[in-house]
Amino acid sequence: MAVILFSGTGMVMFGLLKHVGTETSAITSAITTAVADGSLARNRLIDAAAHVLAVRHVDLCT
Question: Do 1 and 26 contact (CB within 8 A), yes or no?
């Protein structure tokens, strides 16, 4: 399974429900590696997460 991170991507889309666990592990590893090697800025990851939560009207402070 290949995981490709695109510039500007703020949300992850999954394929078949039966593959969500495997895909989640692969995506988590790819993101962790990208932050560790500097190809994805930690601030960009935090900004993307905040944007997705805001669009979905999720407030983690309440």
Answer: yes
Q: Is the pTM of this model over 0.90?
A: no
How far apart CA 61 and CA 52 sit, in angstroms, is 15
Render pLDDT for 25-49 as a digit per residue (tens, 0 to 9). 988 898 899 899 998 899 988 888 8
**Alpha-carbon distance 53 to 55, whole Å?**
6
**3-state secondary structure (DSSP) of residue 11:** coil
H and E: helices and strands count for the chain: 2, 0
Our CA dihedral for 41, 45, 50, 51, rounded to 10 degrees, sits at 90
Q: Distance between CA atoms of 40 and 23, rounded to whole angstroms?
A: 19
Contact 40, 30 (CB under 8 A): no
